[in-house]
Specification:
Strand content: 15-25%
Shape: globular
Order of helices and strands: HEHEHEEEHEEEHEEEHHHEHEEH
CATH class of the largest domain: Alpha Beta
Length: about 270
């Protein structure tokens, strides 16, 4: 098995390629969207990745922010923003803690003749989109990701990819064996991550308010700067971030970074 042969396990799109970073995949998807005549990029108000805000501007594209509910996109509100010539760039699992309704989002955007770029970095191996749910899929294999190779990513689409761009952002040969091994262990990794997350949510929910606690995700977000949540993290040696932060949620919150825990302790989910 070579590394390219693992991609059909991860995406149903016809055209796919490994690239050197998830950011490169995002840039390529935006570049192709622009070449197709789409110059307006809709991104979530929060729950996305930093390059969502900056890469469209590098290409001279307009950026519009969509409102969210604790990082989750609302298809009805997206419908108000969607118009021809727009492309939505969003994460399937926003902020690594809340699953978006991918089917409804795609229906809303495509109805208005818009494109959809779905970032699957937080959902890879857990949720497989069908071809109608995204025009482009982008993914990172970087550190602290569910598919943590430490470097690289992929882009997948129904459109023909620019070969020169793919050459410029080529995935390194030296990491292909590690990619194959990591994909092979992805199912077990997710099982352990979800089990651990559920156990921690049960404990925290007794004294903390958890955002979207019934949703699929990796991280756990506690509403407010809850002192008990911070104490719990310290007692359990759990990494956490204090929000507001764009890549989690733009509200006062504590994001318990289970994705970092699993990435730095890979033996825990083998």
């Amino acid at each position: 098995m070579d590394s390219e042969s693992v991609l059909p396990k991860l995406t149903e799109q016809n055209n796919k390629a490994l690239v050197n970073t998830g950011n490169a995949a995002i840039f390529i998807a935006l570049f192709h969207s622009q070449q197709l005549g789409f110059n307006r990029v809709i991104i979530p108000k929060d729950g996305g990745w930093f390059s969502y805000k900056y890469y469209p501007k590098l290409l001279g594209m307009e950026v519009v922010k969509a409102p969210t509910d604790w990082a989750k996109l609302n298809p009805e509100q997206l419908n108000k923003l969607a118009k021809a010539g727009s492309v939505l760039l969003y994460s399937v699992i926003s902020g690594y803690f809340v699953l978006n309704n991918t089917k409804q989002i795609a229906e809303v955007m495509h109805k208005s003749k818009c494109l959809v770029i779905a970032d699957v970095s937080a959902s890879i191996g857990l949720i497989k989109l069908d071809k109608q749910e995204a025009d482009f899929e982008v993914c990172s294999f970087g550190d602290n990701k569910p598919l943590a190779v430490g470097y690289g990513g992929f882009i997948a689409t129904k459109f023909e990819l620019n070969k020169n761009l793919l050459k410029a952002f080529k995935f390194p040969e030296m990491l292909k064996e590690k990619l194959i091994a990591t994909v092979g262990n992805l199912k077990n990794s997710w099982q352990k991550m979800l089990e651990t997350r559920a156990e921690l949510i049960d404990k925290l929910a007794k004294y903390c308010e958890i955002a979207h606690k019934g949703s699929l995700g990796v991280n756990i977000v506690v509403k407010g700067w809850d002192a008990q949540a911070v104490t719990f993290c310290k007692q359990q040696s759990l990494p956490y971030l204090k929000c507001p932060r764009y890549h989690r949620v733009n509200k006062k919150a504590i994001s318990i970074e289970l994705k970092t825990l699993f990435s730095t302790n890979p033996e825990s989910f083998k």
